[in-house]
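WARN retry 2 of 3 for item q-0093 after timeout on previous attempt; input resubmitted unchanged.
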Amino acid sequence: MYQEILTKLGLNANEAHIYELLLTKGRTKARDLLTDSGLGRGNLYNVLTSLVSQGLATVTEGKQQVYEAAEPSHLATLVDDQKRRADRLAQEFQGELPKLLSTFNLTTGKPAIQVFEGIEGFERALFDSLTEKGEVLTYIDVLALQGPFAEVNARYMKQRAKFGIAKRVIMADEPAIREFVKKNDSELTKVHLIPNFPVQFQTIVEIYGSRVAYLSLSSERCISVIIDDVNIANFERTRFEFLWTSFRG
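OK item q-0093 returned
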């Protein structure tokens, strides 16, 4: 009757079977469960032990052990467990995805492209540069780095400092930007301010490894794109180095 939902919640077939028996029969002696379940003694003992350890059944010790199903609301803990497992799996997958895309890129010769939307997508794209141990090269419109974008960037800076990842940044030479640089000085960050460089382009560009990330800082349409292609990354890196060496302000 309830086997399908119980197995979807994470119980195996035998656990679902025994829990349903306890649910329908109420307090039941172990020997009666042995008869009603059709399971062997050792198998039944393992199932009952598992249900008790999960808080889905209780046991009363005496001359004979008596088992009783826990209130069905306790099954909600299984839902919580699945959510936690799904979250961990999602984090593991996101950590491995850049490597998978790089392998795809190498074997097919095609650039791998990821597109993210919203502030959560912005965070995932920004933090992607932390998967590389090498230096990160960046263009940024710091004047557009406000509100939730600034909050994400603050978390990113803490993680980058923790991992010891160096960054070089090119920004426009403007009074407000100079003030920002003074307040956010870091040993891991080198900044060049370039005269007549675009000021309000509402974008972050990150170059790292074989990837280039373009992150929009527009609250109306927040789109982040990561391109994994060694030729594109090398071109962007060469252009960055040209600007860096040409303008030593």
